[in-house]
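Cont'd.
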Amino acid sequence: MVVSVLAVLLGLFTGIANARPNATCSGSSCNGVDPYNSGCTAVTKSFTQKDGSTGSGTVQADLRWSSNCVSKWARTTNIYPGAIRSLSANLTDNTTTHLSVEPIYTSSSYGQIWTNMHTGVLSNNTNRILCAIAKQGKVGYSYDAATNVACY
Amino acid sequence: MHNKNSLVVKIASYSLWFIVLFLVASKGYTMVSAFGDETKLPAISKIEKNGVSVSVNKVTTDTNKGKTDIVSCIDLPSNADWLPYAKLKNGTEDIAFETTTVIDPIGGDASNSSYRCYHFIFPKELHNKKVKLSIEKLRISLPESLTHDMCLEAQNKIQVDYPDFMFSCNIGDHGISYTIDNLPKNMDEIQAYSLINDTLTSTLFGPWELDITVP
């Protein structure tokens, strides 16, 4: 009896310790889904920064990866705020022309924006490296910072 | 008996290897390890400070692209999404990183371990140079799953030093933004946003500096 109770408690503890948020999608079913509230745990696999040339501050592009959703997305963060800013986040393939894989998101507020997710499997079922590109500028002006590509 | 066909095959094989090696050399790569798990490379130099150890494990230059690539491994405080911010110190010149990429172990995922290796790519090609790799800080990245409770907790922390400081987070629909509801005297908006960013994330300040020689 004691052993059974201990076994149940141990199982509960292990389950809690290993619990992951429930993902709402995985793989290609995540294509086009907003990662926010998706239950997709994420890490940054590659990132790059750029300073604005006319005072918009520093912008960072992250290529985010979720192992439980098997998906990637691009995230743009205004790291060091300068003057009022506009942000852009772009998830692209890793061709020289960097074609957008998901819609580009923009914002005119300080903070962080991100694209929809994509599994990276494009035509011909090939698993592609995807890249994040971030842009930043003063609101009302053209972007004065565009990062290099952060790819994974 | 001498086999003419096998001799022809041998000559062709050797010729092929010569061509491959010639092409690789002519691309200007200084290759230390073309294959293999880069997370298993031995340390060239190492430093430990504030409970974090940092090593340099490989240094290469790409003549064609004008870049210097440094593989560095860090024993991080936890499995969280720590981002290292690095620069190269070349005398009086500081070279900021261009791109930092996590290296997954072969067959594995780097995020499963607190020991992680990175490619730090710098936008300058250096040769025969003694420089310093400096990891300026380690910062946990802000999650997309930020909540209003986390913002309130950050506000409470900031209010210890700035009791008048008030801000709110606007969360959702592909982004997070902040509204400064009350700006303390002698603080401008830029300082306020920096404070919010620093408080919402966790940062360990270095620097962790290592002397390296770029071949």
